[in-house]
Amino acid sequence: MIFLLVAALLSSKNKVSAPGLPAADYFFVNVDYKKVKVLLRDITWTEGMGDYVAINLQSSKRPLVVRTSLKAIEAELPGSHIIRI
Q1: What are the φ and ψ backbone dihedral angles of 65, each rounded to 5 degrees?
Q2: How confident is the model at residue 13, as a pLDDT?
Q3: pLDDT tens, 36-81?
Q4: Which SS3 state, helix, strand or coil, does residue 63 take?
Q5: Which of 45, 52, 71, 81 has the fewest CB atoms found within 10 Å of its own CB?
């Protein structure tokens, strides 16, 4: 089984994704039939586990396990702040 780690190294600067609109500093994931708001600055790293992704947060001891691909989660994160190992 291959594990991929993504370290989210986010700065406090607010990037602009579209003219006049600030970039979102969060996204939502489905965990246990609930929508959970994930703050980008709270992500320490993510781990791909086949059809699932574990999102490890600073504010939680247990990771959020989401049924999605690492590629889909990576699309939600700003590319300039990600290191893929």
Answers
A1: -100, 120
A2: 37
A3: 999 989 999 989 998 999 999 999 999 999 999 988 888 877 776 6
A4: coil
A5: 71
Q: Is residue 82 within 8 Å of residue 69, measured between CB atoms?
A: no
CA-based end-to-end distance of the chain: 15
Q: Helices in the chain by DSSP H: which ranges? A: 70-76
Amino acid at residue number 80: S
Which tokens is 19 given? 């003219």
pLDDT digits (tens, 9 = 90+) for 12-41: 333 444 555 456 788 899 999 999 999 989
Residue 62: both structure tokens together: 């247990």
The CB density around residue 6, as the number of other CB atoms within 10 Å, is: 20
How far is 46 from 43, CA to CA, in rounded Å? 8
For domain 5-10+23-84, the question of CATH label 2.40.50 is answered with yes
Structure-token pair, residue 66: 């989401």
